[in-house]
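note to self — DONT lose this again. spent like an hour looking for the file last time. sequence + predicted structure for the chain T wanted, 66 res
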Amino acid sequence: MICQLNLKIGELAKLYAQGKISILAHYGELACECCGEKIRNQGGSAYSLDYFYQLVDIEKTWWMKE
């Protein structure tokens, strides 16, 4: 299992959309499955699950077109 903290949010969404990884939810925020730490943007705020799932939907749309 890879530490998801080392991946960008777009990479996480793509891997999740392809079924290659799972995610961990922590009080409505995205967290790394292997270590449980919240996945944060450059400003230090944790990504919300709503935002993440929007990115996943975009990735699924692109993936299905290819």
